[in-house]
């Protein structure tokens, strides 16, 4: 049986999914006989990317607890292919509907003052449980104001949900001809009936956490993807992987032998041969030849790797047309912008509101961001790891651990943190109008002015390479599409846009 060799660079969810599916796949070749795939996975770190930042923590009772870093929850409605992948792998999920607190922080010469603005004590799914009442509402006047706020938030949320569902059902959110597909959140806010206060209080902090970006970056985020997320997750619950995402990584790696998984493997050069094979050169000096290459990395990392291939083409005297095509792909990849983010696991309760106002997820932002009426922030000061332009989210990891034993995970801390267990820096892709405009070029089967997938047998997948907000779902969707496109290159009867592998 003929063997097609495929290299996958990157071992996040996209890379592991692509490697797993291809290793298990067979296709019918041009001569009619079955073709199997031999996949080699390359990761420059010492651990697989999907669970590389997860840590094991020993609590006060001596029990070991696994902390997924960052938090890897998925929500019903939006993560359809991720749910399907987990079912296919036999991964057990735990339903976990979060409660939320929304707070603002104000600075004085001597301290930081917390003000809890809103508490939601219900679930992510449909719930009749009431909202919580912040401790600061200790007078009849303050309580009356808060109840009025609750009614206002409820009405705005219903209006936003109806608006989102309407546009989703009418197909406007995925139609490039509809005006809403070209609007940013800031553009949409100016013309919508949803109050600015509701957007500042709930929508901006919540989606700054979902997208892991600054408030200003979120204002420039395309609104269609945000509305789609709201519509698809309406009334849906959150789920976590039981025993951590390492279980997912183990199951995805199962078809690969140890010889096919290469850790500490830093790719320093790519060469495209005359017959469109790809030669990888590693930092240890070894070279390996493959029929296909999948770049399951961040788009900016893929751009750097693809630049190496373009240099090799230039050195080999390739035509100007070939060089232009590669530089065009690199330029398109560089349109995907990334923002730094930090996740800290710790036992410092100072980044939480007062005990009465604490919930599962505690979102806090600088006071001036909340009251700036969608203007750009001029405050770039910092006390913690990140500037005050960021939204800080702290997850109380285990409600059974209280007091000094409590464990928290804070993303983008804007306050200093002590009693640190681990610190993990990341980069998160943030969708922009510019990157959205070229996304179709990386989606197999989509109408586009150019198609960048598969040129010289180089393919791409990752959270950035699929429609929607760049999340785990995009990793799974793009990996499956890429595998189907490679299978179609062997067997033209396969239609990538109408098939699923699990």
From TrEMBL:
Transmembrane segments: 146-169
Record carries keyword Transmembrane helix: yes
Listed GO MF terms: oxidoreductase activity
Keywords: Membrane, Signal, Transmembrane, Transmembrane helix
Signal peptide: 1-19
InterPro entries listed in its UniProt record: Amino_oxidase (IPR002937), FAD/NAD-bd_sf (IPR036188), Zeta_carotene_desat/Oxidored (IPR050464)
The keyword Chaperone is assigned to this record: no
Domain Amine oxidase: 13-345
Any Pfam family hit: Amino_oxidase
Designated name of the protein: Amine oxidase domain-containing protein
Source species of the chain: Mixia osmundae (strain CBS 9802 / IAM 14324 / JCM 22182 / KY 12970)
Gene of this entry: Mo06104
């Amino acid at each position: 049986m003929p063997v097609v060799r495929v290299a996958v660079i990157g071992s996040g969810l996209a890379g592991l999914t692509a490697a797993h599916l291809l290793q298990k796949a067979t296709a019918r070749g041009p001569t009619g006989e079955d073709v199997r795939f031999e996949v080699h996975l390359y990761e420059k770190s010492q651990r697989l990317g999907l669970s590389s930042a997860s840590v094991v923590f020993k609590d006060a009772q001596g029990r070991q607890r696994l902390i997924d870093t960052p938090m890897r929850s998925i929500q019903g409605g939006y993560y359809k292919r991720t749910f399907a992948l987990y079912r296919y792998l036999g991964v057990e999920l735990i339903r976990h509907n979060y409660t939320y607190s929304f707070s603002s922080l104000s600075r004085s010469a001597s301290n930081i003052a917390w003000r809890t603005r809103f508490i939601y004590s219900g679930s992510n799914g449909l719930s009749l449980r009431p909202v919580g009442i912040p401790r600061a509402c200790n007078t009849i006047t303050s309580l009356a104001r808060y109840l009025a706020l609750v009614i206002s938030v409820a009405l705005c949320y219903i209006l936003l949900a109806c608006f989102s569902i309407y546009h989703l059902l009418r197909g406007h959110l995925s139609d490039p001809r509809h005006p809403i597909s070209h609007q940013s959140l800031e553009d949409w806010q100016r013309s919508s009936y949803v109050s600015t206060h509701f957007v500042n209080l709930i929508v901006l902090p919540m989606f700054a956490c979902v997208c892991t970006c600054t408030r200003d970056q979120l204002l420039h985020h395309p609104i269609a993807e945000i509305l789609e997320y709201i519509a698809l997750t309406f009334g849906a619950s959150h789920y976590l992987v039981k025993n951590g995402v390492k279980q997912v990584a183990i199951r995805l790696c199962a078809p690969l032998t140890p010889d096919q998984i290469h850790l500490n493997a830093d790719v320093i050069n790519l060469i495209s041969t005359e017959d469109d094979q790809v030669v990888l050169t590693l930092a240890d000096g070894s070279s390996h030849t493959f029929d296909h290459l999948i770049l399951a990395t961040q788009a900016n990392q893929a751009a750097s790797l693809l630049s190496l291939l373009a240099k090799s083409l230039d050195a080999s005297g390739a035509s100007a047309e070939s060089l232009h095509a590669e530089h065009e792909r690199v330029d398109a990849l560089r349109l995907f912008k990334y923002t730094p983010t930090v996740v800290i696991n710790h036992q410092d309760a100072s980044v939480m509101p007062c005990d009465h106002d604490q919930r599962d997820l505690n979102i806090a932002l600088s006071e001036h961001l909340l009251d700036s009426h969608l203007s750009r922030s001029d405050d770039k000061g910092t006390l913690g790891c990140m500037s005050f332009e960021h939204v800080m989210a702290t997850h109380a990891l285990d409600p059974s651990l209280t007091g000094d034993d409590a464990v928290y995970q804070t993303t983008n801390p804007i306050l200093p943190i002590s009693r640190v267990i681990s610190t993990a820096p990341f980069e998160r892709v943030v969708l922009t109008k510019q990157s959205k405009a070229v996304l179709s070029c990386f989606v197999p089967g989509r109408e586009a002015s150019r198609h960048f997938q598969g040129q010289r047998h180089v393919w791409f997948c990752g959270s950035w390479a699929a429609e929607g907000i760049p999340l785990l779902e995009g990793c799974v969707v793009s990996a499956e599409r890429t595998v189907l496109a490679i299978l179609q290159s062997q067997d033209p009867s396969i239609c990538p846009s109408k098939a699923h592998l699990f």
